Amino acid sequence: LISSATKSLRMETEILEKKLQDAQMKLAEKDGDKEKEIQSLKRLISELEFQLTMEKSNNESFLDKLRKEIKHKSDELEKLTQEKTQLIHSLSQVQEENSLLQDTVRRECEERFELTAALGRAREQVLELRRLSGALP
Length: 137
Known about the structure:
By secondary structure, this protein is mostly helical. The chain has one domain (about 1-100). It has one helix spanning about 1-135. The longest helix is centred in the middle third of the chain and has 134 residues, at about 1-135. The model has no long low-confidence stretch (mean pLDDT about 95). InterPro entries: LEKR1. Keywords: Coiled coil. It comes from Regulus satrapa. This is LEKR1 protein.
């Protein structure tokens, strides 16, 4: 009976040891798979970090270009604004000069009209005097 019980316990022990070994092997495989997955994720993280660094660098470069372009456009706008102000000032001076010239031309035309009218009256008076002097001996 003892021998049978011992034999039975040994068999159970062997079965349990085999199950333990199987469980340990499965656990080792799972640990290996997890380690591979961890390494794969670490590589992926490294790649993503590199891509992020490159994107940051590209963005900084792009922002620098945009800042330079904005500065250039701002300077250009300021220059054009100054030119516009200068042109408006010049236009104002030219309009003033034009107004003075128009006023001068108007006055000269009025004087010419008055002189033409006076010359016409003088001619009439000369003709009248000639007629009168021709009628007189």
